[in-house]
Specification:
Elements: H1 4-9, H2 30-39, H3 42-46, H4 49-63, E1 67-69, H5 76-80, E2 85-88, E3 92-95, H6 101-105, H7 113-130, E4 136-142, H8 144-153, H9 161-169, H10 171-195, E5 199-204, H11 212-233, E6 239-243, H12 253-257, E7 261-263, H13 270-276, E8 282-287, H14 291-294, H15 296-309, E9 315-319, H16 329-340
Parallel strand pairs: 1-4, 4-5, 5-6, 6-7, 7-8, 8-9
Antiparallel strand pairs: 2-3
Helix pairs in contact: 2-4, 4-7, 7-10, 8-9, 8-10, 9-10, 10-11, 15-16
Bound molecules: coproporphyrinogen III (CP3).
Length: 342
């Protein structure tokens, strides 16, 4: 029998949706914290195939999710292109910045990324051999715009100001950076698929800050190009796209990009999404992550409201963004029980 996640992504309406969670392997789990300590730090964990596979499997063993997501990070691609990358404990990522066409020309060609990223492919190979038969394996990468925002600013930013400024100051250099990331992403995701990923997801966490034509040029067009290239190389490979905070631009996003499933953030109303987005195919989402911290009757009510609202079409149950480190693992089990009994 085909895995539940693959059935939903193929457009099947199921009585109970497959369930997984963004950042399901993470700091809210004591076993993750222990393995990260064993690895030394976050990046060493990402590049250690045995330990990265171990943390990927931890939430599967504990909760029995329908999918595992490769443990890695979207910022490994900039690192593979030659950017310096480090994580400041308690603050987040830092990278060397791209502020000119000269910085751009110092980056490596897209073909070189495999040299840095080959341990990630090894993690995928280990997982493909170790996952339970009913659990689907998801590979992922950041979408070019989101990755570019970190490469330009050298860190996360509340409004992506530096990336917008670079785009305004030198649009052709900015577009060339987007192209370089797009090419690297095609190669990276292709290699993940060859290693055993059964689904891939593109995280465009900052898509919501692109407006009008910029949304078409830098959120839609790169996703369309990546998805077309992947489907040419790997016919039938399902793709989940996450243009977070896209609002009205969620409508038609699957058709415009060729994605099999659109992931909804928790600002989107599930009933609205059923009428306007799910009409084009599978949707994923979209419980607010704070319920994993607060729990209680609201968690059950919200999980069941979303499940019922999206029951008329293909749906993958997930959060609207990643689970936070202060979440209570018991609330995850309660969420799964609520969805399966809705
Ligand atoms: O979802 C999963 O369980 C798979 C692994 C995964 C991680 N990051 C592990 C991680 C995935 C899919 C990501 C994606 C990612 N990384 C995104 C897109 C999704 C989103 O959250 O919007 C972004 C923007 C990043 C970049 C990134 N990585 C930031 C901004 C941070 C710091 C913030 C934080 O949560 O600490 C990270 C670190 C990171 N990536 C952690 C994990 C488990 C925490 C690192 C730690 O253990 O200290």
């Amino acid at each position: 029998m085909t895995k539940l996640l693959l059935r939903a992504l193929a457009g099947e309406t199921l009585p109970t949706p497959p369930i997984w969670m963004m950042r399901q392997a993470g700091r809210y789990l004591p076993e993750y914290r222990a393995t990260r300590a064993q690895a030394g730090d976050f990046l060493s964990l990402c590049y250690n195939p045995e330990l990265a596979a171990e943390v990927t499997l931890q939430p599967i063993r504990r909760f029995g999710f329908d999918a595992a997501i490769l443990f890695a990070d979207i910022l490994l691609v900039p690192q593979a292109l030659g950017a310096d990358l480090w994580f400041v404990q308690g603050e987040g990522p830092r990278l060397s910045t791209i502020t000119s066409a000269a910085d751009l020309s110092a980056l490596k060609p897209a073909d070189d990324v495999h040299e840095t990223l080959s341990p990630i492919y090894e993690t995928v190979r280990i997982l493909a051999g170790e996952l339970p038969p009913q659990t689907a394996l998801i590979g992922f990468a950041g979408a070019p715009w989101t990755v570019a925002t970190y490469m330009i600013a050298g860190r996360g930013t509340p409004d992506q100001g530096p990336a917008h400024a670079f785009k305004a100051a030198d649009r052709s250099a900015f577009a060339a950076l987007i192209d370089r990331i797009t090419e690297a992403t095609i190669l990276y995701l292709s290699a993940q698929i060859e290693a055993g990923a059964e689904v891939v997801k593109l995280f465009d966490s900052w898509a919501g800050s692109l407006a009008g034509d910029d949304f078409d040029a830098f959120a839609v067009a790169p996703a369309r190009r990546i998805i077309a290239a992947l489907k040419t190389r790997h016919p039938g490979i399902p793709v989940i796209a996450f243009p977070r905070e896209a609002g009205d631009r969620y409508v038609g996003f699957a058709r415009a990009t060729g994605a099999d499933c659109v992931a909804l953030d928790n600002s989107v109303d599930a009933e609205w999404a059923a009428r306007n987005v799910q009409v084009d195919g599978c949707v994923q989402g979209n419980l607010a992550p704070h319920h994993m911290v607060t729990g209680g009757p609201d968690l059950k009510a919200e999980a069941q409201r979303i499940t019922r609202a999206l029951r008329g079409g293909p749906h993958v149950f997930n959060l609207g963004h990643g689970i936070t480190p202060d979440a209570d693992p018991d609330n995850v089990a309660r969420m799964i029980e609520a969805v399966r009994s809705a």
